[in-house]
Amino acid sequence: xxxxxxxxxxxxxxxxxxxxxxxxxxxxxxxxxxxxxxxxxxxxxxxxxxxxxxxxxxxxxxxxxxxxxxxxxxxxxxxxxxxxxxxxxxxxxxxxxxxxxxxxxxxxxxxxxxxxxxxxxxxxxxxxxxxxxxxxxxxxxxxxxxxxxxxxxxxxxxxxxxxxxxxxxxxxxxxxxxxxxxxxxxxxxxxxxxxxxxxxxxxxxxxxxxxxxxxxxxxxxxxxxxxxxxxxxxxxxxxxxxxxxxxxxxxxxxxxxxxxxxxxxxxxxxxxxxxxxxxxxxxxxxxxxxxxxxxxxxxxxxxxxxxxxxxxxxxxxxxxxxxxxxxxxxxxxxxxxxxxxxxxxxxxxxxxxxxxxxxxxxxxxxxxxxxxxxxxxxxxxxxxxxxxxxxxxxxxxxxxxxxxxxxxxxxxxxxxxxxxxxxxx
Length: 425
Hints:
- The chain is an all-alpha fold.
- The chain is 81% helix and 0% strand.
């Protein structure tokens, strides 16, 4: 029995030891789990601390930025306040100035109205004076026509001989002797003006080409003489009548007598004032000057200077027609181009070209002018212009204002002109 009890105690002891071992294992296992959890907690704590430090730094930087931005906005607000005050003062001063200017404008408007009334009254008076002068001139013309119509053929021949002699004297003095006309020749020219329409009409009815040539040459000479006269405006009615007779007699359509045709066209260019008729005359002259013989007559009668007198920007149609004729006359392939180009090289012609370059807005006119300038810039005489620097500056301004892909032709021509001009400095 004792052994049995001892054995039972031993088994109980063994069971208790095993239970103790299991408890130990469980405790160790739980201890290990706690250590792992502590490690995880420490790692999470470190991560949270790093995040907190990063967030605090970020908040500090943002606070500094917003503080600076706040100061900047305050300063800009103060500046805006000051500028607003100054602008308010300026607006007040401008409003006061505006009121003063409005009062001055009302005073000036009243003065302008008074001046307009004075000008209108003066204009009416001048119109009445012109009508009186025109009526006196018409009366004189009627008297001269009656005198000439009453003359017999012998007197008419004497008149034609006198006209022929005066024309030859004019050519001799101006072309060969390079002298001015005498007062007697000028007086004869002035006296003949009222009678010229009737003489031209009578000479055309006679169908004598020699007689027609003498009368037209004398008429051309008279127009050139009286163009510089003080009473040129009083003779406009006679000149207009001359142009009407030349158009009515259809001398410009005479393709057989080229000399008569060129003379009549030059007379029409100087007497006609209607734009549509003048454009037709220039077109007819352009077609007529395609022959060398007509160009010789054109040179002989000083047609180039007459053409350049119409080179103005007031009417682009007439200016375009004149430039078309000048382009055809100065063509390098033409034999007689050397006679026309020196006329364009004068200072007067250059001032005309400068005025068109400054004021012309039509690209076609500028392109035609660029071609003419390109031809002239190759000549040696072109380097002696006194206003060459002005010409170069004007061309550069035109290049700047019209520098576009659509105007490539114009820009290239003007740039080549600049190269030629600058090389001749």
